[in-house]
Amino acid sequence: MSLDRFPGNLRIGVLNERVHGVANPAPQVILPKFQIMIILEGEQKFYLDDHLHHLDATRHPVAFMMRIAHPTTLRYGGAWGDPYRKIALATPDDWFDRIELSASDDRPPGRAGPILSHSFDTRSWTPSAEIVRLTEQIIAPPPEESEADRGLFRFSRGVEIMRRAMSEAVRARAAIATPADPRPEDLRLYILSHLNEPLGLDQLESHFHLNRRSLQRMFKQRFGVTLSDFIRQERLKSACRALQDGGTSIARAAHLAGYTSAANFTTAFRREFGVPPGAMRKLAI
Which pairing describes strands 120-125 and 51-57: parallel, antiparallel, or unpaired? Predict the structure, then answer.
């Protein structure tokens, strides 16, 4: 895993490679920290003080947050993925406390307190499309003129992921008391498995036997993004992966993303990833 360190001892680790099995099965002690992991593809098992955590992103991305206030024993159970695509953001345990104190002396410390306890606690949830997009940008940042520029790019995305994750974890915890409606997730998975097919509202209405207003409303409420934006983002990511793998023409990538105009595809691609598709293709070559 590559690791970048930033002011305040914020660390951002990135892993994007084939992984299979246990790299280091020996138990180790981890010191107090706050950490968020976003796994886009693959799965991982590990034990914290003999409590098993299984993060399975084989069907959809998964987010995991933990706060450890005392030395804790960590033992890896294994990680698998081809590729295994993950980022980890870690800070000192009191990072949020210090941010809040510096922002206002009138508020008590412990911004993470309502979400995670001050001793040991964990949360896992399905991250929003925006967190997934920011994670993609950290894993595959656009070409920059210097290492400092690349670092600032990752730092800005990492801090935004932290902000959004805190909010999403609150909503995820609040939803535990009420069983979630499975239809939004069914809709999301249907879209992901049919990106290369027509995904108009007519087709979705026919498949799910719901009117388009209900489909759009429940999807936006669950994932915080509109249906059309989600489909557009996922098709652009599919085109981006094809360009990064090499051998895919820009015209073919535009087709994968659902664009008939190369100019419109280039505009949308640059808006999403910060670079034109040609630059992404050159990186792969």
Answer: unpaired
